[in-house]
Amino acid sequence: MTEREADKPAAAREQDIQAVSRAAQILGLFAPETPELSVAETSRRLGLNRTTVHRYFSSMISSGLLERVEDSALVRPGRAILQLGSFSLGRQRILQMAPAYMRELTLDIKISTVLSLWGTSGPVVSLVEDADHPTVVTVRVGSQLALNSAQAKVFLAFLPDQFHAERLTGSLPEPQRTETRRRIEAIRQAGMSSDVNHRGISVIAAPVFAARGICATIAAVGTERMLPEALDSREAMALKAVCKRLTKEMGGTWPEATEE
């Protein structure tokens, strides 16, 4: 609980929880057979009085959760819900499509590959394809990657909300903040990122774009001897080619600045 929430009386906090719960109940009434709702129908189905439902409708319309249907008193899901739904569908689609590309890439370069999706404050490992090799470097699914990781810097370079990216990098201590921002700018030009950590683990990462912008990153992960750091290596070029093909299938566009 935040300090601001702790200052609220218990009754006020209960009201906040109830408001969220009722908004969720209203949104839960929408379905393919019920694309629009009226105050009367919502009142009947939830057992609430019409004044309460009308008040919730007004508040949810103001926040973008609902919108009014033209020339009627009906409401339907608003832009915020549609955006969230589109985002969710995009994540499901990349998770369905990527495994085949990752298997192909892993077989080609003999290096483990990792796909990450953007979480609340950084990349989260969502798919892993381990290489069939005596030496395997892998990452656990569900791992939260640090902001100075190769995949995080690729996300930060291409996130549509660059103000958010700036705030995140601003939380890093110096000189890490300056170095991370410098690397991010270089990634925008190259389209990829490479790092070798103090343990000799090499990572090369590239973005995958959908119609609304970057939707995932894919990285090759191996030892420094197995995976050259250079972005013009065969492994890096193979990774880039796969990410560009996947981007095309996702309906995205590879940034012009990174084209050769």
Automatic annotation (TrEMBL):
Domain IclR-ED residue range list: 80-252
Gene3D superfamilies: 3.30.450.40, Winged helix-like DNA-binding domain superfamily/Winged helix DNA-binding domain
Alphabetized Pfam families for the sequence: HTH_IclR, IclR_C
Domain HTH iclR-type: 17-91
The organism's place on the tree of life at top rank: Bacteria
GO biological process, one term: negative regulation of DNA-templated transcription
Transmembrane segments: none
GO molecular function: DNA binding; DNA-binding transcription factor activity
Record key words, sorted: DNA-binding, Transcription, Transcription regulation
Descriptive protein name: Transcriptional regulator, IclR family
Native species: Virgisporangium ochraceum
